From TrEMBL:
It comes from Nonomuraea solani. This is Uncharacterized protein.
Length: 326
């Protein structure tokens, strides 16, 4: 069941981020992440033949071709659906028997676009589609690529331009009287596996290894991610980047923002060693053709989590009184 307030063809969740920030790779990793969680009952399916083909193509790029999807050129619309685990329930008047409750479902309509659209000053059809998707959705995934920020430093410019366009469309009327955008926003720091990012996390004391995790992968604890994000912004090429967090908090309700540290491919783990090795964790290496090859298993980190968090926030009705434990 999709909530009745979901309008077909309009995105529940829209994503944006600068060119090359990792948007398409994130979508490719989403089905792998959900598949890995299938014991917990999660699945991602394409709603129509085109979306199913695209889903398989994206997944195969990472898993079979062992490389990344090509940069996005044409606007691509993915209609997917996440189906969660159905809970065993007991009826109070018949407590000795269990029955299977309906599985939680929500629709993921993603519009994948070239990230450099905002660099274009004149409006065009794709740019209009991007702003439309941000306006119509209620969940946003914002991709922040710390490596690109350290080199190019244009995230602030892109974010500022996008938010002002969306605010110009949504906040001038009386609908949102509190002056904030109504969306929930998952701010995703991408490419955590990149040594430039992981090293900062380890050297600055943000990465912790949970003794309960048999792979001993260093992770940034949830409550420290906003500070890690602020640090990465401070290290950026563009000094305006420091204002990104303030910009996000100025436009969105504080309790509707959540920060995630993500990697589409995850860290390399030597099968023989069986756990994270700080001297050998590169999972992306240059190949002989001048491209990139994914070296070991694809282990997405925090790819499913932001999507499920958004699903839970924007479609609470679809999950009411059901098990939804991500
Ligand atoms: N190390 C590492 N590199 C990544 C990851 N995700 C993406 N990349 C790199 O970033 C490049 C761009 O990723 P895309 O997913 O195509 O980025 P995009 O935001 O869709 O880019 P456009 O479509 O051009 O806007 C990839 O070709 C990879 O080289 C990741 O999780 N880890
Ligand atoms: Mg892309």
């Amino acid at each position: 069941m999709v909530d009745s307030d979901s309008v077909p063809g309009e995105p529940d969740i829209a994503m944006w981020g600068a060119s090359g920030s990792g948007k398409t790779a994130f979508l490719a990793a989403l089905s792998i992440a959900l598949n890995k969680a299938r014991d917990a009952g999660w699945r991602l399916i394409g709603e129509n033949p085109v979306s199913r083909t695209e889903l398989a193509k994206l997944r195969d790029t990472l898993l079979q071709a062992r490389t990344f999807p090509a940069p996005t050129e044409a606007l691509t619309h993915y209609s997917w659906m996440i189906i969660g685990p159905a809970a065993q329930r007991r009826r109070w008047w018949w407590p000795w028997a269990t029955h299977v409750a309906k599985a939680p479902k929500f629709k993921l309509d993603f519009l994948d676009l070239r990230g450099d659209l905002y660099a274009e000053s004149e409006s065009n059809i794709d740019k209009k589609a991007l702003v439309d998707s941000l306006v119509k959705s209620r969940g946003l995934i914002y991709m922040f690529d710390p490596d690109r920020e350290a080199r190019v430093g244009d995230a602030f410019k892109h974010l500022d331009a996008a938010l002002h366009e969306v605010a110009g469309r949504m906040l001038v009327g009386d609908e949102f009287e509190d002056g904030k955008l109504p969306h929930h926003i998952a701010v995703c720091i991408t490419k955590y596996d990149d040594p430039k990012v992981l090293r900062i996390a380890m050297e600055e004391g943000f990465a912790e290894r949970d003794p309960g995790d048999e792979l001993r992968i260093p992770r940034v604890p949830e409550e420290r991610v906003p500070d890690f994000f602020r640090l990465l912004c401070r290290e950026a090429h563009d000094h305006n980047a420091e204002m990104i967090l303030d910009l996000i908090e100025a436009f969105f309700h504080r309790d509707r923002i959540k920060y995630f540290v993500t990697s589409s491919v995850g860290l390399f783990i030597d099968e023989d060693l069986g756990r994270f090795d700080p001297d050998d964790f590169l999972n992306v290496i240059d190949n002989a053709n001048g491209g990139l090859t994914i070296r070991g298993a694809v282990r997405p980190m925090n790819v499913m989590e932001p999507v499920i968090w958004l699903g839970r926030m924007i479609r609470p009705g679809a999950m009411r009184s059901r098990r939804w434990d991500g």
